[in-house]
Design goal:
Length: 500
């Protein structure tokens, strides 16, 4: 494995990141000229310069041979790339002194900055901020922009705009793209990345315009679009989307969360005129069924308890409105909120927690274990029951009329085992660090699933500021695991990975 090539590629990634830091600089200048106090301009300039210097140093001081990225280098670049981007992405928070904590060490303060940065780029949306609306426009924009970059994948962005990676970029794309398999739309991987980003841009532009029609300013519309399309969840308001109390805004964001949780390859084909591609896709149909059943059950459950005065919903329509938004927010791992679902009946909370594990579709910007994996597990379970009745029958597992290879099923079963195992271990760690069991489990699944709000002390109306410093780093690691779907990160801990 070529460590020089890895460092060289990470340098290119940092150069791209430095360029994106100039966007908040432009936001700060705009609001300064508009007469508003914008005191974080210098913080972003310094962050951009420092990031650029390190990136240029890695690129030009390390003379990597012109060679393709191999499989090992690809996995290393993706995993280390996210760690590096989150590290340098925390610089604006540090220089802007966003988390100034009197009487605390700089190491503790850094844990806040790194946690917020990792939550942004991994599109988790978990925050350690207790007050959001007092932040400068530049900082708010950077929080949301980190979502948008991480949504489709900053590494995929690098593949799209850095042709020097050549065909070796396939290793990057394969390691970065969510889901058990990568759907190439074109023979050239860079072209595939550009097409996906094109769809991403188009949908983002459309949502921004629709939100502005609903009364949002351009700034708020952009920030909430970044959080929606990336399924991130950072908002510019303390009460998230609930701040607007608008049926129209709820509907628009719910619809685009649904699109963001769908395989982007299907959006590309639909834009090319093949709308029926959605209805031919088995995972998409399963995704729709799960959503419909969840919304129906929660709507029935909350309105039923409203009769007893436990839930302040005055009609089935109101119950349906809030149920739809929260189901879409949780299943797509966006994490926006319009209601405190911890006040809902136990059945509704249980359904939402179950959806935290499900996540979006493969090839979407959503996190979680992905719909297709649960679909395959259900099909495999059904096949095993049939095999008990017909021991000699050949019962292949099919998705989209194609037989799923045995190695894919092995991959899915292994992923499920690792996910549940790590969930249990981290829950124990968080409980050891002082959280009650509900909060520990809620924080673990909310970060591993890249959701944001959990249960207990990290519920939809709370934040992660009170988490122990060590716990913040553990949960940051969980965010990385969830965003890169376990294997890309866990492979780095294998001794064989580093052997020549």
């Amino acid at each position: 494995m070529s460590l020089k090539l890895i460092a060289y590629t990470l340098g290119n990634l940092l150069i791209c990141l430095a360029g994106t830091m100039l966007l908040p600089v432009g936001v700060a200048i705009y609001y300064q000229r508009a007469g508003e106090t914008e005191n974080n301009l210098t913080a972003f300039v310094i962050s951009a310069i420092f990031t650029l210097i390190v990136g240029l140093a890695l690129r030009f001081s390390i003379r990597a041979r012109q060679e393709e990225l191999g499989i090992r280098e690809g996995f290393a670049v993706v995993a280390l790339g996210w760690v590096t981007v989150a590290l340098f992405g925390s610089l604006p928070y540090i220089f802007a002194d966003v988390f100034h904590i009197n009487g605390r060490s700089s190491w503790i303060e850094f844990s806040f900055c790194y946690f917020e940065s990792m939550a942004g780029f991994t599109t988790t949306g978990a925050t350690v901020l207790t007050e959001i609306e007092h932040l400068s426009h530049a900082v708010l924009f950077w929080r949301s922009l980190s979502h948008w970059l991480g949504g489709m994948g900053i590494v995929v962005l690098a593949v799209a705009i850095l042709p020097m990676l050549g065909i070796g970029g396939m290793q990057l794309f394969r390691a970065e793209a969510p889901g058990p398999q990568t759907d190439r739309l074109t023979p050239r991987i860079a072209q595939t990345a550009k097409l996906l980003w094109g769809v991403y841009l188009l949908l983002s532009l459309l949502e921004t315009v629709l939100l502005m029609f609903g009364g949002m300013s351009l700034f708020d519309a952009l920030c909430h679009t970044f959080g929606t399309m990336a399924t991130g969840g950072f908002s510019t308001k303390n009460h998230s989307i609930g701040h607007y109390n608008s049926v129209y805004i709820d509907m628009v964001i719910s619809f685009f969360m649904f699109l963001a949780g769908t395989n982007f390859a299907l959006h590309y084909r639909a834009l090319r005129g093949d709308v029926k591609a959605y209805f031919r896709d088995t995972e998409f149909k399963f995704y729709c069924i799960v959503i419909a059943v969840s919304i129906t059950l929660i709507s029935w459950n909350t309105i039923r308890f409203q009769v007893d005065g436990d839930i302040p919903y005055d009609s089935m329509w109101t119950s349906l409105r809030y149920a739809t938004f929260q189901v879409m927010s949780i299943i797509t791992t966006t994490g926006y909120g319009t209601a405190d679902f911890e006040q809902w009946p136990a059945l509704s909370q249980f359904i939402l927690v179950t959806l935290m594990f499900y996540g979006g579709c493969a090839g979407s910007t959503g996190g979680g274990m992905k719909q297709v994996r649960f679909l395959l597990l259900i099909k495999q379970s059904g096949a095993e029951i049939k095999r008990l009745l017909f021991p000699h029958a050949v019962l292949p597992i099919r998705v989209n009329d194609r037989v799923v290879p045995p190695e894919v099923m092995t991959n899915v079963l292994g992923f499920f085992f690792f996910f549940i195992g790590i969930f249990a271990i981290v829950t124990c760690i968080m409980a050891t660090l002082g959280l009650d069991l509900v909060s520990a489990a809620g924080a673990t699944i909310a970060t591993m699933g890249n959701i944001g709000p959990g249960l207990g002390s990290v519920g939809p109306t709370d934040n992660y500021a009170h988490i122990h410093t060590a716990g913040k780093y553990v949960l940051s690691f969980c965010m990385l695991l969830g965003r890169l779907e376990l294997y890309t990160v866990l492979i780095l801990f294998s001794p064989n990975f580093w052997k020549r």
